[in-house]
């Protein structure tokens, strides 16, 4: 293929080149020339390949070309000379200077010009050689992938320059700015609201004078007239006050209850404290905390607040309040307003339980329903499900900046995080508050490592925070952060939907949580924590990306690819996925709560569901065969199962093992799956094998077992003894070991036996580490033991099996005299 390209017109000379090959991929220039034009634009002289050539012959040669292209600034002249329309394209100017012709389809910015992909890669390598001596080929390959996404050579190169400081040059890392609300948006004054006078006075003392735009929209759409609403707006936009206005008006005027539901116990505790301080004491109303009763001796305590029937406000987890409905502990007619905070939780693994609860609320109560969320991709569908009007408000109360920082390795990443934390702490906002940071990382262990490093590098107070810490320690960190005593907390995704820290900056040290990449919803929830109105003038979200990085061998995508996906993602639709056991549990709950008393009613309540897709009567048949219902009437066995929130099939299988060893029975149906190899054994095995050994027990055993004899024999005596003891206890003798289910079951039995020795949940991991070289976080052990005790209590009550009941009692309180 021959292509003629007209490259410029100056001093009466129209310059061109002839190139061989496809200009889309880069054609080599073979001949250069020009036509000299008269004042009237007629060709009067020609040069072709450096030789004077008659203009007619030059034009003849040009007409033979398979393709004719002109740069935009000479297209008009070329049209007149050739007497025909030709292609107008932007070309890579660097290629032209290197005797190549390349059409720019998607250019790469370099300074003030754009170049083609080939030149971009060449420039990138040249710049790296100059800026980063001794760079690796791997780094170059990673940056080429990033360059393809960003299409900005200067931006990519500068990011990996060791001297680049993202805290000082944030305009170069800025990806996007989400603008704040317009000051001109309509805001209702507090004085115009039809609310009880005593509530108005309390709000005025808190500093409220007018509503935010989203609060104003809600009032105008019927919030105070009892209308169901789905409110979708960013974190900090005022959704909680929307709920409080409706709920407290109902409490004070009609004497009916406000129920405020959240997904996590930590959030329930926080909301209970807030409601007590803001409204309980000033208004003289009773606020009850309703979460699952703690069965373990270490965590049991008195109930907080009045009884469910006497409380004016019930703050609880979804399951905690559902228990009241299932057992009749609260009169549905007494409920005036139900607030479902974080309603997008419908999309997670607990979604079927929340979905079932919503269906029962709609059937049993005439309460006003308010759904609150910051991240819903299908608000119209979700609003229809709630019989509500959708209120969608996308503007934030303060602007939010997204930044992307590219790092060569973890060391550079952590150094830069230290600078960002330090810089934010030195920032004082117009409100007088300092900047504070939440750093998200992929594992609990990493929260401690990174917090220690940040403390050392910055000299500031930085604390690790995760669900594995004792409650008192977590509460202490929360209070210190709220008082402005901590520059940063380093945490895991658990905080993404957890306690609301007033942070101005959110840093993603990694985009993974455990072995999974963040979903768009998780990312948006976590990013939304940055910037709180009344505290900060803006929020800042920083993604610290290491191109090519994976955090687990099961991950197919790399961190840089995930980063761009998340930055460009839209809110995900909220959908509920049921499995067979979920459907059985919810059908039983509908029957036990009285939400359905006939086949028709059961069909109707299940039709209200967002995700129930099975045949309700088929599930009734299965429940009947297991003895949970008779006809459509729940049996005592069914009522017990519903009260304990256990899957019917699970508790049926456990109760069927009555007479066998209770510990073995419960470990087989509910094993603990968060055991880890102790750090000392992990390091010892890695030294011997020269391989990276996973922390998770089942993954680690796969590596160890493949070279079992050689590995064990070469270990130091202490680690060798622990590993020998562990393998002896866990080896079930089956062909699939260690890839079988018996590993977690047998390890679970070890933990249960240690508990029965009279050890606390905090001592169990230490003892397991000392004997077998395995460990776990105490709070994970505690949560699992709570479930084990509940299962044994339930199965023991159903099967009338005293040994199971005794085992449950002993595991709950191994210190009592029996």
Describe the structure.
Residues 413-582 form the Helicase C-terminal domain. It is a single chain. With 818 residues, the protein is α/β, with parallel strands linked by helices. It has six domains: 2-105, no CATH class; 112-164; 190-392, Rossmann fold; 400-567, P-loop containing nucleotide triphosphate hydrolases (Rossmann fold); 580-645; 669-812, no CATH class. The model has no long low-confidence stretch (mean pLDDT 91).
What's the quick description here?
The protein has 32 helices and 30 strands. By secondary structure, it is an alpha/beta fold.
Can you tag this structure with a few keywords?
6 domains; 32 helices; 818 residues; 8-stranded mixed beta sheet; 44% helix; 7-stranded mixed beta sheet; alpha/beta; single chain; Rossmann fold
Query: Which blocks of ≥5 consecutive residues have pLDDT under 50?
Result: none
Query: What is the terminal-to-terminal distance?
Result: 94 Å
Shape: globular
How many structural domains in the coordinates? 6
Averaged pLDDT = 91
Query: What is the SS-derived class?
Result: alpha/beta
* E-strand count: 30
How much beta, percentage-wise?
15-25%
The CATH architecture designation of the largest domain is: 3-Layer(aba) Sandwich
- How is the CATH topology of the largest domain named? Rossmann fold
CATH superfamily of the largest domain, by name, is: P-loop containing nucleotide triphosphate hydrolases
Largest sheet: 8 strands, mixed
What is the count of helical runs?
32
CATH class of the largest domain: Alpha Beta
Indicate the radius of gyration in whole angstroms. Answer: 33 Å
Helix share bin: 40-55%
Domain Helicase ATP-binding: 220-394
Pfam family, one: DEAD
Motif (Q motif): 188-216
Protein name: DEAD/DEAH box helicase
